[in-house]
């Protein structure tokens, strides 16, 4: 499904990819991920989307965001919103779907292939719109977790579904908890 001369872009829904990889029991090595898709075509852009908590002295995602920024990723962030649900639980909301969609649509005329790292069914209309512009779309997520992280209608709409677990040996590394306990 990938061709060497394809102008390629990757769009990573950070929270969704993190949850999918965690459900499969590994962490993503973003340097290897970028290298892999650089190898599969002419990688024009690699986007990473995430919401950040404002006002916290330390955010666990900050070192990753900084590393991605300095290593060739276009990092798109926005402040996460904190709220209390009807049960009185503290919740954090930081949906990046609109930002990812706008970037993908703006880049579409200069792309042959878009790779979306998300299983979120909300992206099905984006996939369809990109396809109408002649862009092939691959979606990376997993059906091997319980429950599956990919929405069925998104998987069906995509030109190509890439099982995240099949990329484990290429772009994965053991979760940090295992690394630190092993030595």
UniProtKB/TrEMBL annotation:
CDD domains: PIN_LabA. Residues 7-165 form the NYN domain. It comes from the Bacteria. One of its GO terms (molecular function) is RNA nuclease activity. PANTHER family: SLR0755 PROTEIN. This is NYN domain-containing protein. It comes from Paracoccus lichenicola.
